[in-house]
Design goal:
The chain is α/β, with parallel strands linked by helices. The chain has helices at about 15-25, 45-50, 70-80, 105-125, 175-185, 205-215, 235-250, 265-280, 315-335, 350; strands at about 5-10, 30-35, 35-40, 60-65, 95-100, 140-145, 150-155, 195, 260-265, 285-290, 300-305, 340-345, 360-365, 370-375. It has two domains: about 5-155, 2-Layer Sandwich (VC0802-like), CATH 3.30.2130; about 175-215 and about 250-375, Vaccinia Virus protein VP39 (Rossmann fold, 3-Layer(aba) Sandwich). It is about 30% helix and about 25% strand.
C-alpha cells in the first residue's frame, strides 16, 4: 500500500495521547506539534485512526507543501494538485483556511483563490467544475498558512471525530467528547475502576467511559458514507468493511458498570439519561439527581471527575468564590479514598477550594485555557 503523509489535530494538551493512538494503529514518523500530530502511514492507518482514535479531531491527508509570498503562489500550489483524480466534479466542496503569522491581508480572498484553483483544474481537464457547499460539503479542503509556507490537506474525516452521534440532548456548555476521553486518560482512569461524575451535564464523561469499558470504537456509531474518505475515488470499500467488522468483534459484552453520574439539575440528568439511552448504554450506568455538596458518594472510592462551572455556566464570580470552599469541605468530609479531578478555567479554584493540587495539567477547552487539577483525597485523617 502507498504510504502517505497525514496530520491530525486535537485539543491542545492532548498531543501525547494522540501520538499514542496513531502509533497503536501502525503510524510511522509520528511527530507532535502544538495542537496535533503529523504521521506517515498507508490507508489502513488513516481508516483506523478515524475509526479508533478517541482523541483525534480530524485526520487530514497532506497533498501539497510549498513556500509562498503572495496569493498567486498559493493559487499555483493548489492548481498543481490533480484534484480530478481524487474526487468527481459532481461532488460539492468547501475550502477552510487557518493562518499563523501569514502576511496575506484577506483570508476570505485566499479561500476564494484556492477554490478557483481547484475548479480551474477540473475545468481544464474535464470541462466541468464542482460546486461549493458551505454547510454540508462532500469534500473539505484545508489550507494551513505560516509566515512563509502553505500546506494543502484533504479532510478524510468529514464531520469532526468528536461528533460520535450519541449526543441528541445537549446542555449549555458541552464538553467535546475527545477532550473528555483525554481527561479520563490523563486521570489514569481504567475500565473496571469506579468512576463518579457528580456534575455530569449531558453525560459526556459517562458515555466516553462506557465506550472505553466496552472497547467500543468511537467511529462505529457513524452511518455509512459519513467519513470523508468514503467519498474519495481511492476509497477501499473492502478494507473499510473488514476494519469495521474487526472493531465490532472487539466489543465486550457487559452488565452494570461501576460508572455513576449525578447533577444538581433534574433537566441535566434527564438529558444525560436520554443520551445514554440513544447510545444504548442506559442499562450500564447509574444516574441520579443530587448536589455535589451534599451527595453521598458510591462506597469504596475510585476516580471522581468533573467539569464544574467556571464563568461559562455560572456568570456570578461571587457565587463561584463562595462555592469553591464548600466544595473543598465536601471532598474532605465525604470523599476519602477518591482521586478527584476537576477541569477549570478559573485560576482561583485551587486556592479557594482549600486543597493542595497534586497535578495541574494545562488543557484547552476550545479556545479557553484551562487546568486539569488533581486532588487525591487519601483515606484516614487529613494532615
Amino acid at each position: 500500500m502507498t504510504v502517505e503523509n497525514f496530520f491530525s489535530p486535537c485539543p491542545r494538551g492532548l498531543e501525547a495521547l494522540l501520538a499514542e493512538d496513531v502509533a497503536a494503529v501502525g503510524a510511522r514518523n509520528v511527530a507532535q506539534v502544538p495542537g496535533g500530530v503529523s504521521f506517515r502511514g498507508d490507508w489502513e492507518v488513516c481508516y483506523r485512526t478515524n475509526l479508533e482514535s478517541r482523541i483525534a479531531t480530524r485526520v487530514m491527508w497532506r497533498l501539497a507543501l510549498g513556500s509562498y509570498r503572495n496569493e498567486d503562489d498559493v493559487y499555483r500550489l493548489a492548481q498543481g494538485v490533480p484534484w480530478p483524480q481524487l474526487f468527481s466534479a459532481g461532488q460539492t466542496l468547501r475550502v477552510y483556511v487557518t493562518a499563523q503569522r501569514s502576511p496575506l491581508k484577506s483570508l476570505e480572498f485566499i479561500t476564494l483563490r484556492v477554490k478557483d484553483a481547484v475548479c480551474d483544474r477540473f475545468r481544464d481537464e474535464s470541462g466541468r467544475r464542482p460546486s461549493v457547499d458551505t454547510r454540508n460539503p462532500d469534500i473539505r479542503i484545508h489550507l494551513f498558512l505560516t509566515a512563509d509556507q502553505a500546506t494543502l490537506y484533504l479532510d478524510t474525516s468529514g464531520e469532526p471525530l468528536y461528533m460520535r452521534g450519541h449526543k441528541v440532548a445537549k446542555v449549555e456548555a458541552p464538553l467535546k467528547e475527545n477532550l473528555a476521553a483525554g481527561i479520563l486518560r490523563l486521570a489514569g482512569w481504567k475500565p473496571g475502576t469506579p468512576l463518579f461524575d457528580p456534575m455530569c451535564g449531558s453525560g459526556t464523561f459517562l458515555i466516553e467511559a462506557v465506550q472505553m469499558s466496552l472497547g467500543d470504537a468511537p467511529g462505529l456509531s457513524r452511518e455509512p458514507g459519513q467519513f470523508g474518505f468514503e467519498r474519495l475515488k481511492n476509497f477501499d470499500a473492502g478494507l473499510w468493511k473488514r476494519l469495521r467488522r474487526e472493531a465490532a468483534d472487539d466489543r465486550i459484552m457487559a452488565g452494570k458498570l461501576s460508572i455513576r453520574g449525578s447533577d444538581i439539575s433534574a433537566d441535566a440528568v434527564a438529558r444525560a439519561r436520554q443520551n445514554l439511552a440513544h447510545a444504548g448504554y442506559d442499562d450500564l450506568v447509574e444516574l441520579r439527581q443530587g448536589d455535589l455538596l451534599t451527595v453521598e458518594p458510591p462506597p469504596g472510592g475510585g476516580v471522581l471527575i468533573a467539569n464544574p462551572p467556571y464563568g461559562e455556566r455560572l456568570a456570578d464570580d461571587a457565587a463561584l468564590a463562595a462555592f469553591y470552599p464548600l466544595l473543598g469541605d465536601a471532598l474532605k468530609k465525604r470523599f476519602a479514598g477518591w482521586d478527584c479531578w476537576f477541569l477549570s478555567a478559573d485560576v482561583r479554584l485551587p486556592k479557594l477550594i482549600g486543597l493542595k493540587a497534586k497535578r495541574r495539567t494545562p488543557l484547552f477547552n476550545g479556545n479557553l485555557e484551562c487546568r486539569l487539577y488533581n486532588f487525591p483525597m487519601v483515606s484516614g485523617p487529613l494532615r
